[in-house]
Design brief:
The protein is of the alpha/beta class and 355 residues long. The chain has helices spanning 31-58, 73-80, 96-102, 106-114, 147-161, 179-191, 210-213, 219-224, 238-253, 282-289, 293-303, 309-332, and strands at 88-90, 167-172, 195-201, 204-205, 208-209, 229-234, 259-264. It has 12 helices and 7 strands.
Length: 355
């Protein structure tokens, strides 16, 4: 896909450079270059994972509702750079990218897509209900805005226990119109809870444009009315996202209460795999693709001399191999047996009656 900044897609290049001679070690990269390489790898992992999901869905290998994150990778990757392992993340139904950026293994996410027992939710959640308590990744939530009160509860629990943790809650612009956001924002600000609200404003709540749903479309300004720090960020620029998230998280840890980041981003695919996407002008989609966050970072790294064709191709190959392994593992994983139907449904199994 030829898109952002007039560059080429992250897996191809128009120019071939001489390959490094065999047996010679690559030059050492400065810390900033290594950091950018890590950002690129994470965004590529999400992009290629989602593209593979499209292929698998088209042949009915995975089923149900699937909401793709293609185009929004910079938000998940940039925000997670600012979070620590002890922090909590609450997500939405478009959460594959959030889970992968949080460190949930691709094998666990893909197996969940297949509904297999090795999935991160043991195959019972599917695409919209990814969950990993060990990594403090609390969903996946199929209810629009449903994760917001949970985030406040997690943050309140941390506060009551004296924990120095931050709870990050991702949600879309559609959730901003729900009562859960306004109730949660009010309580979080009133109680000074350590919550980072990350609104992924991709301009459409399902098929409804932002301007047809909100009289005031400056969501950051509206969030600030609750008395919390709030500002808008270029959600297509991973460096801008990371910088904003680090600043917000640092301030929250210092005790300044909740912060709100409006990530202005765009999904390149339809709302879900079921969606014919007839409500967005085609030229609007193509214009946003010119700001592809993956290609934008590739172009920046090439301009800085920190990424050449060989390294880019090697990175893409590494990511594709990781996804291939995840698909193979999911295909070979066992289905849940029928006798386990009631497991995890009740708090405890009934004891067998005495004979």
């Amino acid at each position: 896909m030829a898109t952002a900044h007039g560059g080429t897609s992250a897996g191809t290049s128009q120019t071939k450079r001489p390959r490094r001679a065999r047996g010679t070690a690559p030059p050492a990269r400065p810390p900033a270059a290594l950091h950018d390489l890590g950002l690129l790898r994470q965004m590529l992992l999400i992009r290629r994972f989602e593209e593979r999901c499209v292929e698998l869905y088209s042949v009915a290998a995975i089923r149900g509702f699937v909401h793709l994150y293609i185009g929004e990778e910079a938000v998940a990757v940039g925000v997670n750079q600012a979070l620590e392992e002890a922090d909590a993340v609450v997500s939405t139904y478009r959460e594959h990218g959030h889970a992968l950026a949080r460190g949930v293994p691709p094998e666990a996410v893909m197996a969940e897509m297949y509904g297999k027992t090795t999935g991160c939710s043991h195959g019972r959640g599917g695409s919209m209900h990814l969950f990993d308590a060990g990594r403090r990744f609390y969903g996946g939530n199929a209810i629009v805005g449903g994760g917001l009160p949970l985030a406040a509860g997690l943050a309140l629990a941390d506060r009551m226990r004296g924990e120095s943790r931050v709870t990050c809650c991702f949600f879309g612009d559609g959730a901003f119109a729900e009562g859960e956001f306004h109730e949660t924002a009010n309580l979080a600000a009133l109680w000074g809870l350590p919550v980072l609200f990350v609104c992924e404003n991709n301009l459409y709540a399902m098929g409804t444009a932002l301007s047809r749903e909100h009289a005031q479309t400056d969501l950051a300004m509206r969030a600030a009315s609750y008395g919390m720090a709030a500002w808008a960020v270029d959600g297509m620029d991973v460096h801008a996202v990371e910088k904003a998230a680090r600043g917000a998280v640092e301030s929250i840890r210092a005790g300044s209460g909740p912060h709100f980041l409006e990530m202005r981003t765009y999904r390149f695919r339809a709302h879900s795999m079921y969606d014919p996407d007839r409500y967005r002008p085609k030229d609007e989609i193509e214009e946003w693709k010119r700001h592809d966050p993956v290609t934008g970072l590739v172009d920046d790294m090439r301009a800085a001399g920190s990424l050449d064709t060989d390294a880019q191709e090697a990175l893409d190959h590494e990511v594709m191999e990781a996804i291939d392994r995840a698909v193979r593992a999911a295909e070979q994983a066992p289905e849940e047996p029928a006798e386990d139907l009631l497991l995890h449904v009740t708090g405890r199994q009934k004891e067998a009656a005495p004979s």
